Amino acid sequence: MSTEVKINSPISQDSNYILKPKNEEEVSLIVKDLYKKNLPTEIIGSSSKNFIGNKLQCAKILNLSKLSGIIEYLPEELYIKVKACTPLVEIEEILRKNNQQLAFEPIDFGYISFSKSNKGTAAGYLSCNFAGSRRFKSGSVRDHVLGFRGVNGKGDIIKSGGTVVKNVTGYDLSKLITGSFGTLIALTEITFKVLPKKDSSSTLVIHEKNKEKIAKLFDNLQSSSNEISGSIFVPVEPNDKKYTKNREKIFKFNDLKNEGSFLAIRMEGSKKSIDERIRGLTDELNLKDKTKSILDVHQSLLFWERINNLELFSETLNGLVRVVVPPSRCIDLMKYLDQNYKYYIDWCGALFWIEISGMDETKLLKIKDYIITLGGYVTVIKNPKNLAPIKDIFTIDETRLHISKKIKESFDPKGIFNPGKMYRSI
Amino acid sequence: MSELILPKIDKTTILSRDKIIYKLKKITKSENVLHQDDEIKPYETDALSAYKQRPLLVVLPENVQEVSKILKYCNEEKIKVIPRGAGTGLSGGALPLNDAILLGLGKFNKILEIDFNNKCVVAQPGVTNLSITHAVQHRGFYYAPDPSSQLACSIGGNVAENSGGVHSLKYGTTTNNILGVELVLMDGKICRLGGKTLDQEGYDLLGLICGSEGLLGVITEVTVKILKKPQSVKAALIGFPSIEDSGNCVTEIISKGIVPAGMEIMDKALIEATDNFCKAGYPRDAETLLIVELDGTTSEVNELIKTVSEIAKKNNSSSIKLSKNEKERLAFWAGRKAAFPACGAMAPDYYCMDGTIPRGKLSQVLKEIQRLSKKYNLPVANAFHAGDGNLHPLIMYDGNNKDELKRTEEFGADILKYCVKLGGVLTGEHGVGIEKRELMCEMFNDNDIQQQLKIKQSLDEKNLLNPGKVYPILRKCAEEGRVHVHRGENKFPDLPRF
């Protein structure tokens, strides 16, 4: 146990603002005490994504960063079991050595604040459930969590799931806690499903700016049997000084010849299969007369890394929102955004990352209302400095809020974990 | 059959039967409320037909408002409700109770929307799994999860059970393939979870509902993802002289970075049974048979099937056949898909288990099953979804012999306990239901179960929705029965089960 928490002493001494347990038993002891004393507590790992969600002011901070390390990795069983706050880079490194990966393609949120990598911990990543570009093919974070252990708001150690993919024994709590922003449970252990890395990858870039054509291309790509694993549209930035023009700098590649808006398509697999699929797509999408570039494996890897690092929004002082819409509505949102916002589209038209200058509650709500009419939702990722707390960081309707409150109570009856992090009442 | 412990009967409800019938007839059409003996009889059991219970009455609502009103009424009057889809479940999840209304979703049988633009289909819960694929295949699409009962099982039931199939290693189970549901809570509240977006924000309530076995709400609409059919599908049929060799081959295929669409193992007993039953042309000299199916782009499939053959040879395969066309590929599967009826032809009764183990423990678990087979003096044949570790041992016995029945149940429970001991789980795709309820404490401790019960309580305070399922009533690890089939008198004898 760290100096902040002493064994056999009252854990909740006021001087011990930050509690740093070393193992699951200590987490349980601490939470039992917090529960008894009814102390609102902020749960943190490495704080890499702490800026997402409502700001908290809690009596205590439960820092789980000492719960770190790989517990069990069986490449042939396609899973890795880790302590909750194992750095994601450590997990990715060991998987890389075995030619495996977390197929949901973790996003690196470090760049949008400090222009450098800061991927944070496994638990932090699970708590946010934000998957990268491969999501539309491989699923989200929640689809790759096989099981977990953790401590609920009463201090009870609980577990759910296991290490196998096919498991219908009891409620699927792994999904429920994924994306719960630490409001249900203090995680202590996570088992992720892992998958083989493909031998190679290539990116076909189509230089196109016409919105209707882009939407049509996205639609055709989703219907293609040429197996793509990434598809994004990056328009040119608006002609507005409030938005940094870094697009050309970020996507400076030897083989990316043309300037201007582009749609990029990733293919992964064997070299032979990729070449075949590029030919297949060229025919299928009628691309013969289009201006195209092809990025080889080296450029392709870097290209998608930069996309999933959100480098387009590096150190932005503007607001940043993540918007998910039904893919067919991407054309409507593109028209709505027009040249007034800096954005790019991922997941074959289903995900928008939008930078909003001068974001205040009025401006945000206006966009949000429109997106809700499209059947989508908005999550505020970056709330600019000096801006009063925004009420609606997340999108929720009344019925789901009602159920969510009940679920919250079942895990954390006194509401001590990250109170108000997602919604004011949860 | 072992005596089944059921929730305490509420005599007040039974005495109020006439009043309840009257009230329900005000909510839905009179003919939708079934209460005569001959009308109720077909609903006495689901596909775990060893257990039968007469429901208080059966109601077949026609729309979500009716479902909402029925549940609200039952909640207010403290009447238990058992939701039921097509009744093809193998774990007794839809087993009625004498003092409960059986709420059948059979009239919710329409596909509401085929949305090719968003690559999804919106269906009522009573629509069968296969009819979704039928509705979209003309444009080259399909719905991925393919439980063996897909011809008859309903999509609502698939959501309740989180059904899998032979392709779940690559394509996931139901939970990975649905975008949204409409459901009604026990208090009558109608909720929409998800929609046509890939992700949902906030608590993953959709993920919680999927696989909750009808304990948290009644599903009245499902939105599923549809996928484009792969360019090419090929299969390899590989014989091995030992369990170890086939197990090692599976491990090496995965280690080489190949994720087959399907990977099935059958043991010698099942090879012989199926070959006798449907002349599948399987290598009868092999100890185990492995079917590997690969799909994707043409050149990728061609490359991978070559690699799989090489791996098989390296692991001492005794025979390898590669499918040259679609007809041959389907022929490879014919025997595997006849596994259940083939066992039915070999013994008066068979009894199907459903545990999942880590793939690498295959030979270990098969050896233990053989040891137990000798111990209990009962023959067993094994089918195994090797790709995802889901094991279906089929124990053959004579149900008329009470001692044999008792031994069968003990044998089955021992297998599941061993699966858990090896790091596996009690059920991979059939659900807990009443069948494995008392074995839950093999996997979960009191804290784990209490947390799950609190979730149940938070959405169904009075414990009226499908009570007595999934969670142990007496908190003991009794050995209860599982899928028993007597003289082929399966509830759905024509449904393939694999």
Strand content of chain A: 15-25%
Contiguous runs where pLDDT drops below 50 for at least 5 residues of chain A:
1-14
Largest interface pair: A-B, 88 and 92 residues
Task: List low-pLDDT spans of chain B.
Answer: 476-482
- Average per-residue pLDDT of chain B, rounded, comes to 92
| Beta strands of chain B, count | 20
Largest sheet of chain A: 5 strands, antiparallel
The CATH architecture of the largest domain in chain B can be given as: 2-Layer Sandwich
> Average pLDDT across residues of chain A?
93
What is the number of beta strands of chain A?
A: 18
The assigned CATH architecture of the largest domain in chain A is 2-Layer Sandwich
Total of helices of chain A = 13
Q: Could you say which structural class the secondary elements and strand pairing of chain A correspond to?
A: alpha+beta
Describe the protein.
The complex is a heterodimer of chains A (426) and B (498). With 426 residues, chain A is an alpha+beta fold. Chain A is globular. The longest helix of chain A is centred in the first third of the chain and has 14 residues, at 24-37. In chain A, 28% of the residues lie in helices and 22% in strands. Chain A contains 13 helices and 18 strands. In chain A, helix 7 (211-222) runs antiparallel to helix 11. Chain B has helices at residues 11-15, 17-27, 37-40, 64-77, 129-136, 155-161, 168-171, 205-209, 243-255, 268-278, 298-314, 326-337, 339-346, 362-376, 402-421, 440-443, 446-459; strands at residues 33-34, 57-59, 80-84, 100-104, 111-115, 120-123, 141-142, 178-184, 190-194, 218-225, 227-228, 232-240, 262-267, 288-296, 319-322, 349-352, 355-356, 380-385, 390-397, 483-486. In chain B, helix 9 (243-255) packs across helix 11. The longest helix of chain B is centred in the last third of the chain and has 20 residues, at 402-421. At the A-B interface, strand 8, helix 6, strand 10, helix 9 and helix 13 of A face strand 9, helix 8, helix 9, helix 11 and helix 17 of B.
